Amino acid sequence: MNLTLNVWRQKGPEDAGRMVKYKVKDVSPDMSFLEMLDVLNERLILDGDDPIAFDHDCREGICGMCGMVINGVAHGEQVATTTCQLHMRHFEDGATITIEPWRAAPFPVVKDLVVDRSAFDRIIQAGGFISVPAGSAPDAHSVPVRKDDADAAFDAATCIGCGACVAACPNGSASLFTAAKITHLSLLPQGQPERLSRAKAMVEQMDAEGFGGCTNTGECTAVCPKGIPLDTIAKMNADFLKAN
Amino acid sequence: MTATIERGSATAPVTPATPPPTPVRKPGKKPTSFLGSSNGKKVVMAVTGAIMVSFLVLHMLGNLKIFAGRESFNEYAHWLRTLLEPFVPYRTVLTLLEIGLVAAVVLHMWAAISLARRAHKARPVKYVAKKSQATGYATHIMRWGGVTIVIFLVWHLLDLTFGVVNPKGFDSLPADRMIAGFDPTRWWVTLFYVVAVVMVGLHLRHGLWSMFQTLGWAAKRYQVLKPAAALLSAVLVVGFLAPPLAIMIGIVK
Q1: Domain range holding A221?
Q2: What is the ipTM of this complex?
């Protein structure tokens, strides 16, 4: 496969940045998207150029590090897939691919396609935990949980914090991320004591970071690699209202 | 597997080998009030929206009285003005309702503008390419749809409430204004009205469901409330379009 890439290059946080065109030849359809970028980067290094910086870690779709907007869609057009799990076979030979970083004021670009997602960490720090004396793990069935709740809590807990929801949202809102983190605790008995104060603190931190408000467009859930449902946001809103 | 890459026509400039500076972020100021928070503003949107929808339902039912004849429609208009008389003066209840509605419109717009500005600030650098993945046309026209509805509202009040742009003028019976307003010779008014009502319907289709979501009701009843919002919007559109279209084609005279 031969491809033309339009990639966002930005030397550092203060640089204005620009789109730069690269031609990539003989790409195997079996490569992942990141492997294709690796190949390009090796070439750039040999040529004495600066390789394209992008975040990645596990490359098996579970860590949440990778993420870029590919042809206008966070993580690319394949549904429920992280960038590392997206393969070149889904692109046509000779295609032009536009690659951009997540765009949001609370996610400043560090370099090229790498953005600083510490804002998410601060939202978690504001209340995304349960304050209990830790010890050895309790027996699995010592605290009964309804099956429906366990399933919904697990679904919410699959959020890997990649930030695709923010990238896709027309308002740059972090509601889906925050709601997933709030919901996976609020559905379980362990999360009940701090349920309302958690929702209030995390929503307020989300605002303080400069994320936009939710207008229920559903863009977030459409690109979420874990398919976190939109009703988590309704659950967050309900808890936030009760807390006020 | 071998892969060779040709250098592109343009290449990225090489940065000097300095460690990438860690972006310094000021800890944001926490919003002090409920109404200052994005969720609080959404609640304002939802509650004021609900007030306006309740009004629209009553307004639609009132309009349908034209099918029962001019007298019935005029009596209803008179009844609205003489509600609770003689305990309160003429037009007290109606005036209070009007004040409430104006307040709802103003607050709804305030919250919308404030949230839109916040959203604008949250994405200072726009995407070169951005493709929508969510389904639904209604979602994308909320803000401009709202502006369109306000413009329509101004015309609508001038036409049928104050009679400024109505052939019958202000000193006329409501039913006369309505029937003259949608006369076949003024087909362009009816067309404008139809477009505006459809816009209202689309606005409500997303707005109503959004209200359920904001107030947290959609958490468990997602599958029921989304179609319910669409159904109520459709009922309102049909109910509001029936009288003017009936007048235009001469069913109501």
Answers
A1: 117-130+145-243
A2: 0.92
